[in-house]
């Protein structure tokens, strides 16, 4: 029976981690998987997380099961961070903890399917795992161009919404678009929210990088605008990047709907979670809860995020200051957001970057801005110039 299984290709992005590790060139540059790196190329545990983990070790008196919804203190503590203190419809929002943002997306899409959604509309390029999740759940995917000429392609989005069927949902990146770094402006979010409301189209919002774009409040504007406009929405949230908890898999899933319907909706979330992973892992989410319940740890965490954002902004400015590298215009990178940017390079050019210059990036042309440092950015720009000349 098992011998019938055909081999599957390794996830291209995750395979890059191993390829990079196996390269023994001292000046190699890792711009692959989306993790934050310091100017030394490290991805350290946040000091605020270390502080919270100490508290956790000292105070946690049981590791008994919590249930499919995980740590509800964590889920509640995140609400003001995501939705703000003045979010009028907060009484219509309920949530649960998930294993990472991926678990949140998985649960949102599976719940949408249970509710009758047959296809998900989404801009491309997108995070490759979005399409994989839809495929695994046997849902149709309708794509539109996320960006054109370095800017959001609003016409493509509008016509996709106009053509939507009643059983469609739409997936939108809340901020720091992965992979392009090209985000909607506040005015565009307002327009999108109004279109979704008019069409009655269910939004699935993926907020995986809050705080890594323009700021915690700024990066939540889009989801807050949409959720203040439409009657129902699903939101997947990740703490993997903004708390640096990647391998601890810390995420959440929120539903906004009629208050009296929420218990039934969340019971579907709980039963889907039970069938998928039973219960989410506790440790990272408990550390986030401890941070958010403690004013000093919260300040420390926010300051750490400020530093990360400032460093990435410096790298973006430095790229833009280079003007062009070969055929690549670097100037748009200064005004884009988050960890990622796309280089318009061919497959051969991306391979040449890896083979000839030890520069590792996703096959799509995506780079992780945080992989750039004061020490390697000039080499990177020269390498891009070399392969694209
Ligand atoms: C990325 O896009 O690099 C991250 O979200 C990591 C992942 O799981 O793909």
From TrEMBL:
The keyword Transferase applies. GO terms for cellular component: cytosol. Residues 27-383 form the Aminotransferase class I/classII large domain. Residues 298-325 form a coiled coil. Its cofactor is pyridoxal 5'-phosphate. GO terms for biological process: L-phenylalanine biosynthetic process from chorismate via phenylpyruvate. Pfam families: Aminotran_1_2. GO terms for molecular function: identical protein binding; L-aspartate:2-oxoglutarate aminotransferase activity; L-tyrosine-2-oxoglutarate transaminase activity; pyridoxal phosphate binding. InterPro entries: Aminotransferase_I/II_large (IPR004839), Asp_trans (IPR000796), PyrdxlP-dep_Trfase (IPR015424), PyrdxlP-dep_Trfase_major (IPR015421), PyrdxlP-dep_Trfase_small (IPR015422). Keywords: Aminotransferase, Coiled coil, Pyridoxal phosphate, Transferase. Belongs to the class-I pyridoxal-phosphate-dependent aminotransferase family. Homodimer. This is Aspartate/tyrosine/aromatic aminotransferase. The lineage of its organism: Bacteria, Pseudomonadati, Pseudomonadota, Alphaproteobacteria, Sphingomonadales.
């Amino acid at each position: 029976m098992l011998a019938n299984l055909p081999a599957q290709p390794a996830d291209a992005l995750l395979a890059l981690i191993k390829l990079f590790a196996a390269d023994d060139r001292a000046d190699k540059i890792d711009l692959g998987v989306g993790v934050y790196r310091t100017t030394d190329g490290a991805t350290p545990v946040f000091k605020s997380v270390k502080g919270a983990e100490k508290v956790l070790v000292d105070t946690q008196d049981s590791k008994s099961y919590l249930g499919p919804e995980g740590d509800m203190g964590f889920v509640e503590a995140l609400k003001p961070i995501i939705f703000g203190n003045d979010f009028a419809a907060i009484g219509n929002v309920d949530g649960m903890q998930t294993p990472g943002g991926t678990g949140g997306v998985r649960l949102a899409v599976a719940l949408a399917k249970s509710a009758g959604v047959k296809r998900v509309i989404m801009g491309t390029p997108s995070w490759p795992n979005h399409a994989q999740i839809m495929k695994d759940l046997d849902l149709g995917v309708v794509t539109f161009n996320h960006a054109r000429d370095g800017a959001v392609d609003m016409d493509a989005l509008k016509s996709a919404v106009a053509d939507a069927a009643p059983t469609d949902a739409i997936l939108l990146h809340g901020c720091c678009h992965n992979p392009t770094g090209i985000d909607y402006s506040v005015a565009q979010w307002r327009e999108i929210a109004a279109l979704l409301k008019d069409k009655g189209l269910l939004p699935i919002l993926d907020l995986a990088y809050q705080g890594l774009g323009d700021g915690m409040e700024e990066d939540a504007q889009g989801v807050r605008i949409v959720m203040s406009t439409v009657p129902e929405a699903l939101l997947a949230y990740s703490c993997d990047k903004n708390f640096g908890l990647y391998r601890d898999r810390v995420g959440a899933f929120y539903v906004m709907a009629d208050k009296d319907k929420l218990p039934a909706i969340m019971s579907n979330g709980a039963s889907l979670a039970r069938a998928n992973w039973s219960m989410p892992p506790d440790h990272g989410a408990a550390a986030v809860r401890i941070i958010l319940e403690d004013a000093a740890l919260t300040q420390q965490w926010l300051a750490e995020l400020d530093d990360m954002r400032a460093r990435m902004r410096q790298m973006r400015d430095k790229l833009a200051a280079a003007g062009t590298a070969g055929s690549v215009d670097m100037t748009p990178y200064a005004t884009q957001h988050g960890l990622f940017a796309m280089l318009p390079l061919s497959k051969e050019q991306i391979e040449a970057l890896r083979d000839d210059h030890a520069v590792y990036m996703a096959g799509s042309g995506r780079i992780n801005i945080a992989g750039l440092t004061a020490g390697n950015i000039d080499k990177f720009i020269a390498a891009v110039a070399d392969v694209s000349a």
